[in-house]
Each structure stands twice: as structure tokens, then as C-alpha cells.
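## Example pair
The file below holds two records. Each record gives the amino-acid sequence first, followed by its C-alpha cell line.
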Amino acid sequence: HSAGPIGGSTARPSPEPLIPASAVPSAMEQPADATLLARADDGTAALWRRLLLYAVPLLTVLCLVSTFLPIVTITGTWSFNYWNGDGLQEALMLLAVFVIATGIGLAAIITPGRSRLILTGIAGAASALLAISDGFRNIIRFSGSVPDIQDATGASVGAGAILLAICGVVLLLISVLHLAFTMREEKPDTRTGLVTQPSPAPGGYEE
């Protein structure tokens, strides 16, 4: 006759995992804006990065508006801006630069791919340098000097030149901070030595 196994142990099935693997989202399933704009665990840092991104197109619009304001007021009665003086070509150049920078910033807000975020900082910094150069040049040019115009006895700097210079300085600072936050995503983790790479954008396309 046959006897059953003596002292044998019956194999026990392994316990089911407490959290199914399907319940854990993969990097491919995470939205791009969550990984690029709110990667930090600190909500305050994520808020500041978002505010910096929104501030870039806002300031470029203010720079554009300043070109329609007076850059100089002569004898308290005459005023000139970029569009009704002899600086039409300069006005068109400023218009093109500020409109392009604004469009890039809005595109980064709507679809915040990493390449768009970097391009927003670069376009903002370039626009800021142009605004600073042009704004301060006009401030120095018309401060206390009497232009060579008949019946002109004095001149004062207009609000357009002042607004352009101030917005340029603020825009440069914000663009540099925005770029610093965005480029920091590539720095290696000091604990693991691995480089943090942004997750692909929705649809499987990397920015």
C-alpha cells in the first residue's frame, strides 16, 4: 500500500499584494504640467514657479503698452511716443519682439512642455534686455535737455520710457528666476547620483 508523505509541508500561496500594480500610475500616465510645474513636494515652490511663468507674458504686454505712451513731453504741451515720432522702425522692432515673447509665454502656460518653458525664459530675457536698453536710453536722452524744436523751452521724460525701463528690469529678473527653476530639473540627485528627467508629455511625445 502507499502511504502519504510524512513530515512534508504543504506549499502555501503567496499573499496578494495590498496595492495592485495597476493602481500605481506610471511616469507615462502622469500629466506634463504636474511633472514640470509642480514637481516639488513643497506647494509654495510650485506656486512661485507658476507665478513666474505667468508674469513673463504679462510683463511683455506691459512693455508693449509702454510704446504707445509718451516717451517725452515738450514744454508741457507736446508729447511723442514711438508711433507718432521718428522712431517708427524702432517701434515695429519692439512690437515684433514683445508679441513673439508674449506668444511663447502663453503657449507655455497652455501646454507647459519643458522646451516651451525654457524658451519662455530665453524670450523673456531677450525682451527684457531690449526694453532696458531702449527705456534707459530715452530717459537719459530727454532728462533735462531741450530738444531742437521751434518754441521748445524744456522737456521731461514721458511715462512710456519710465514704464518700459522698469518693466524691463523686472522682466529680466523674473526670466532669470524662471530659467533657474526650469533648468534645475536636470541637476543630478545628490543622494542617488541620477539625473532627474522630465516625464514625456501626454501622447507619448517628449518636449
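Second record, same layout:
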Amino acid sequence: LISVYNCLYQLKRYEEALVVLEELIYDYPAEWEWRAKKATIYGEQGKFMEALDEYAYLITLAPYQERKRLTEGYDELATVFTKKLIEDYLITDARKLVEKWLKVHPSSEQGLKYALSLSTQMKDYEAVKKYAVMEPEKKDIYHIIKLAQVHHAEKDYRKSLDLLSPEITRNPYHKDLVNVHSQVSEDYAKSLILSDAYEQGMVLIDSAL
């Protein structure tokens, strides 16, 4: 059966290969890696959700000492699928996939970055806030910028600058950070000037230059 599966897979006769895999899984239930091959075939067929479901189930079956390695494999698979959906402009599908991804591996750095990026693109600022605070360890600049952009969009300029200003001190040449900081400072200054806080607004503009 193994040689039959290998032959069918090489020939890209995926439906037939899946039938053989089901037999192998039935005959050798302890050989959990057959499910990894099943997930791979689903991925080749463009059935990305099914592939992740299969791989997630595989992780629960594997010995404890293997789970870290398999979770990393899950991340790699989810990254490939997410990139493909984004390249095909299937943004809603990509976001649904990322949501599934983070249910299996909530602390995935790559998964969180995709979640932030896609939520920002869809202007779902509540989701951006949720994902921005999910980072389990020290937040990187990417997370800070995204959260600052949410506060900016909500016209909460002070909160945005409170996040950005310390990072500017530490990373004065980070292009995205500098650009966002400048834009927030400019908009905050305009709002101050319009509210008759002219001098405070001008000071803010000078500090952003």
C-alpha cells in the first residue's frame, strides 16, 4: 500500500492517493504521520481548511515530545496557505484561515502578524486591538505600529503617540515607525490648532520634524 500511495502521489492522482491513505490510517492507526500526508494532499487540492483540521488532529495524536515540532510544521503549512489566499486576493478567506490557525496555536508570531495585517486591511479595528495584545512576550515594533494605527484611526492621538514615542527614541531610523509617528503627530497638531490650542499644536509639529 505504501508504494501504491507514493506512486499515486507522484502522479498527482490525489483522490486515489487519499483512498489509499485512509486504508493505511485504518490499518496502522498508531502511524500518525499518515495524517500529515493527508493534510499535504488537501493542501495540494486547495482544501486549506481541511488540511489544517487534519494537521491539528494529528498534533493531538502525536507523542508529547513530537508536538513542538509538529506545531512548527502546522505554522509553516498555515503560512503557505495564507500567502496563497492573499496572492489570490481572497482576503476574507485568508482571515478565516488565520482565525483557525490561532485557535490551534494562539501564540504563533507569524499567525498574529497575519491577523493584525488582515484585520487592519479590513478596517476591523476591534480585531486589531485584540490581536495586538495577544503577543505573549515583549511586543515587537510591528505590533506596536498596528495598535498605534488603530488609535490613530479612532482619533485617539494621545494614546497613539504614547505607544510610538518611546519606540522612536529606541529606533529612530525605522522607516514605518517614523512615517506613522509623523502622520499621527501632524494630525494631532491639527486637531489641537483647530481646538484653539495653537501653541501646543505648533510645538508638536516642530517635534515631529
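Notes on the second record: The chain is about 80% helix and 0% strand. The chain has a mean pLDDT of 87.
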